[in-house]
Structure formats: C-alpha cells, structure tokens
Amino acid sequence: MCRFLPWTQADPDRTIRHVESVGQQPFARRVWTTLDPRAAALGLQMALAGMTAFFFAQVLRLQYPSWSVFTVIVLLLARYVGAVEEKAVLRLIGTILGGVLAYLATGAWQQSPLLYLASTFLVVTVSIAFFGQSRAPYAFFLTGLTYIVVASNGMAYPDDSWAYALARVEEVLLGIVVSIVVQTTVFPNYANRDFRRILRTALEELAVATPRAAARFKGEHSGLTSALRDFPRLASQMRTLLRFGARESSSFRREIGRHARTVDLFARAASLLRSVEILRPAPEPYRSRMAADVVRAADLLVAGWEELGRSGRLGAETRVALDEVARRIGAAMIDLRDNHEAQRLAPAEIVNVSGQLLALQELRQVILDLDALWRPEESHAPRAEKLALAPPWPDLFWLRHGIRAGLATVTALVLENWLSPPGGTFMVLCAFNFTALNALSPEGSGDRGAFNYVIVFTLVMAGATIALIAGTPLLASYAVFNLFIATWLFLFGYWAYDRNGITVPMQVSFLVLVSIIGLNAQEPVSFQKISGTFFGLVNGFLIASVFQRLLWPVLPQRQLQRAIPMYIRTIASCLPAGLAALPLWQRATIALTPSQGRTYLAAMAGATCPDDERERLENYLLTLQQLVGEILLSVGRLLPACPAPLAEELTPRVNEVRTLIKSALKELADAFAESRCPVDLSAELESCLARWDETIGLLRQRLREQHIDAATAADLMGIASRYRTTLTLLVRACQEARQLRLSEYLGDVAL
C-alpha cells in the first residue's frame, strides 16, 4: 500500500432495507441516525470551545467575554486544524495592528473630526480591499474590524482607548488558545485526511464516467457532461485543502508537489472525458470493427481507477491488458487504412474517431502517470508555485467594496456621535460587518435582497427582543445560561457545516448570540441594554443595506457579467502556451467560473430574468465550458507533434485558426461585458471550418505518404479533431450569444 496515500474503503451506501429499518426506529433514534456526524462534530466543537472560552473569561475577570466567544465561532468555521492555526495567527496579528491604529487615531485625532473620520475611512477601505488578495487577507480584515471595535468604544473617552485595545487583544488571545486546543483534541478535522477522502471520491466519479466514453463511440447517449459538471469545483476544493494540509503535517508538506500534480492529472482526466461528449459517434466501418476493443479499453480504465482508489497502485495485469488493447486498436486502425468504405469517409467523420481514440489513449496515460507519481520510491521536488487561490493585489471590485465599507462605517460613526442611538457601538460594528461580508454570501444573490433582509430581520429581532425580555430571569441561572449558549453554538455549528461560506443569516445569528452573552444576565439587565441590542443590529443593517444597494451593488446579474468576460479573456490570453502560463489563482478561477455562473443564474430567478432566458444563459455557459475544455486540450500540441516538413506546411493553417479563435473570443467577451449582441462571425467561422476540413484531408494524405505509424497518426488526427471541435463550438457559442437579451436584465433591474 502506498504510504503517501493511505486509502481506506468508502462507507457502503444505505440499502432500501436499511432505510426501512431506520423508519421503524423510535423518534429519538431516527434523529440520531439521520445526524451528519461531521456537522455534529463541528457543532460539538463550537459548543465546547465557546463554553470553555466563556468560563475562562469569567475566571480571569476579563471585561468582554463575548469577544472570546466571537473569536471561537469565527475560527472554528475554518473547520480544519491547519486552517484554524493559520487563521488564529492572522487574527492575532490583525487584532494587535487594528488596536494600535485605533488607539493612535482616537487619542490623536478624536477632537479633529475630519482627520479622525478620514483615517477611519482609509483603514477600513484598505482592510476590506486587501481582504480580496492572497497575502494574509484575514489579517487585513481583522485590522479593520478591531479598529472599528476599539474606535467606537473609545470615542467617548479617547484617553482610555488603550484599555479597549488591550481588552480586545486579551479576549482574542483567549479565544485563539481555546480554539486551537479544542480543534486539535476534540474530533480533530485534518485537511490532508479530507484531501484523500475527496481524492477517492474523484476516482469513483471518473470510474463511473469512463464507460460512457465507450457508449458515445457506439452511438449511445452518454451524459458525460452532466456527470462531470461539478468536477472543476472538486479539483479547486482539493487545491484549497492542499494549502491547509501543508500546515498540519510535515510529511504532507514534503509531498505537496506530488499531491498538486495529482490534482492537475485528475482535472485533465475530467476534461478528456467531457471532450468525448462533443464528438459524434464513430461511423462505419470503424464502429463495428473497433467497438469491442473500445469497450474493453474503457473497462480496463475503470479497473485502473478502482485499483488506484484501493491501493494507490495500478495492478500489473491491468497494465499489461491496457497495453494489449492499445496494440489491438492500433492494428485495427492500420487494417482500416486500406478499407474502401473508410477511405470514402469525409475528414470530419474520420477525426471524430481519432478524437475519441486519442481521449482513451490519454486517459490511459493519466492512469500510468498517477501510478508512477504515487510510487514511494519516486523522488519529486517540492512544489515551487505558491498555493494561493486569490490574486496578488486587489482588483477594482475589491477596491470599490472597500470604499463602500469605509463610507458605511464612517456614516455609522457620525450617527453614533451625533444622535447617540441605543446600541450605537453595536450599530457601527454591524454596519461594518454587513457591508463587508453580506455581498460575499455563497448563495450568489449578493446585495440583491439587502432591503428585504432589513424587513425580515427587524421582525425577527423584535420577536427575539420580546423573548429576551421575558427570559432574562431564567438566564440569570448559570445552568440555564450555559445550556442556552451551548445549544445555540451546537446548532449554529451543525447548520454552518454544509455552507460554503458565511451567509447573511449566519452573521445575524452569531452577532445576536455574542450580544446576548455581552448582556451578562447574572447581573440585572436593563431594558435599555436589550433594546440597544435590537436597535444596534437593525440600524447597522439599515445603514449597510443603503450603501449595498445604492453604491456599486453586487448583484448576481452583474457578477455574471463580470465573470464570463473575464473567463473568456483569460483563456484567450493563454493561447498558445496553455494553462501552464497562468498562475494558480487564475487556473482556479477558470475551473470555478462555470459552477459560480450557475449559482448566479439560480439567484437571478424571478420576473426580471424569465426562465427561458435563464435556460439560454445556462446553455451558453455550458457551451463556453466545453469550448474552453477543447481549447486547453488542443492548443500548442499539433505542430510540435508533427514531423518537421509537415509542421512547416501546417503552420500557416494553424496560425489562421488560432488568430480567428482569439478574435472570436474577444468579440464574445466584449459583447457580454457591454450587454450587446455580438457581431455575426458565422460566415468567417464556417469558412475557417471548411478550410480546416481541407487541412485534415491534407494531414491524412501526408500521414499515409510518409508511412507514419498508426499510433502517431491517430494522435495527430485526434489533435486535429479537437481544433475542429473548437471551431464548431465557437460557431455554436456565437449563435447562442446572439439569442441572448442581455440589455433587458443585466442592469440593476430589481431595485
């Protein structure tokens, strides 16, 4: 068994009999058996860590125990030991820096409103803008957050603002220590362990999808695209786990280059399988002559995926059988060269066969590469590339986001100082938090429902305030109060487990909990304190919503309008070098854009974007995903694989195709960004497609004349087929783009 990938068998699926037996169990046992153990583990971690932090804050007589609980909640949302440790260090750095800046600004400029507000705006803008880049983004965010907490609490007594800064650092440090201890000792969740689990899942998905390639060869419906639609998201998730796993284990860190190469190979395998879906079935006589060997090859590839999943090694028998079936397929290609029926086929039909055979051959090579990569005796240099999934500098989107958060925070500070509303300091914190984070909610709706949320949470908070007033005497009991906190934290952790980010309700939930802890029900709690919690959150949400909706609103339609042109332009920029010329964060963006686009489309549902238009957009996005896959599988491969005289003859033709592809991609990107119908390029593309068919015929003739061996000839024809598929998909993309009515809904039509 490969020591680098210690596989374990996946849990067996539930059978119908098991489900029926669960349905016959008592209610309590049914609830227990339906609990997600991973989500329950996170809930228990949060409950235990929150209670522990609160206990030690009370024992140590710390002034603001709610801040330590707040720290615990946010840190444990990172879920992995390595992620929590990284986040803890960045949180401590940001807290200290923010506290020092707030003390200096409050002490020096509190009596000079313009300087004080300008410095606050600058700190918040920079902290949120740099939250969108790859170098310690969380430290920047905590710098802004701590600055706001200390500044808003120290405005009334600027000379004592150092006390708030010190208290904040003490509480955060306590929360950090408790979080790390609990995460590493109670149900520890390791990123490297999840990496291997997801890797097994990826192998299982590839094993399920591979036989569909053979079905496509025979003319049967395969459904490969739908089967592997979310595979890029899976690959990006694995890359994220690599970064955290490298911080958890020195042995995992030593093999980071090997694991990163594994993810790249998996992504390539998925792209190869998706490329088969686009090709037409093999024509006769190829289908009847080669179908059995193609099915056999697919079955052996499945066996290879399964063997890699079980032990991390490819069995010797499977390796020999793969070589044998490859030899038989090559022999069949040689036999069919002189077949009169095959010779009468059009070039477009020939390249369909070559494209499918090339995909199977390259899948075989991926399996062999994985087998070689996972051998313990192999030595691989550590990965030199930085595992950063964000750009090195904030872009215009994040700069605007920072300016908006700065303006909202300054407005809240002015209102607090001018009107002294109930819960003023909490209002400033909420205005900062909601403006900075609400638009990044993973549901993809962005700022679209900001005003709706104000209404909903005003009603929710009104009910919670009434319940809190009625229940305050109960919370005076330590037992009841601790049980209340533990239950809330467990349910919050369980609920947060499956969320791919912090949603708006999640923010409200833990802010309400932290404010309740801050009331300290062991002492008499006045109505003013409870109402301060209500008005602080509601007023903060109201201020945030105004800036969210009126200043550069983040809307799903605009996010889509931003993402798709960037997706297309990034692909055009890497021609002909391919993805290797791009940094990891851009490759990750390319991989995630299709799934993010579908999230935005789902959030656009409603009268402003009719269902038929969303369907056209989804089809267009799917076409773009297929187009990008074909471009990346074909660019820069044909000419280097050809003999020198043939490469020289084909160079002008390949350059013509490449130039047209880049110009067409540019037009598609510009048209979508400008909400207009793209220029009709059908005639140029069809003409280029016809000339490429002539090129395929010429290539086929030269291969026969030069007696190129069958395997090399099949590879060259397969690569040529991918160029043809690229042009075909480009024609389809242009046609679908011209049917869209972008100008009707890509603006802020929901306001």
Describe the structure.
- The chain is mostly helical.
- Helix 13 packs antiparallel against helix 17 and helix 17 crosses helix 30.
- The longest helix is centred in the last third of the chain and has 30 residues.
- It starts with 15 loop residues before the first helix and ends in a 12-residue tail after the last helix.
- 45% of the residues are buried.
- The N terminus is likely disordered.
Number of strands: 0
Order of helices and strands: HHHHHHHHHHHHHHHHHHHHHHHHHHHHHH
Average the pLDDT over all residues and give the rounded result.
Answer: 84
Tally of helical segments: 30
Outline the biggest β-sheet: none
Helical amount: over 70%
State which percent range the strand residues make up: under 5%
Structural class: mainly alpha
Query: Roughly how many Å is the radius of gyration?
Result: 30 Å
Which stretches are low in confidence, meaning pLDDT under 50 for 5 or more residues running?
1-23, 378-382
Distance between the termini: 59 Å
Cα shape: elongated
Keywords:
30 helices; mainly alpha; 751 residues
Please give a quick description of this structure.
With 751 residues, this protein is mainly alpha-helical. The chain contains 30 helices and no strands.
Sequence-ordered SSE layout with sheet pairings:
Layout lengths: L15 H8 L3 H8 L2 H23 L5 H12 L4 H29 L3 H17 L7 H18 L6 H25 L5 H27 L6 H4 L3 H18 L1 H5 L1 H23 L7 H26 L4 H22 L2 H4 L3 H27 L22 H24 L4 H14 L12 H26 L2 H19 L7 H16 L7 H24 L5 H18 L10 H20 L7 H24 L3 H4 L2 H30 L8 H24 L4 H30 L12
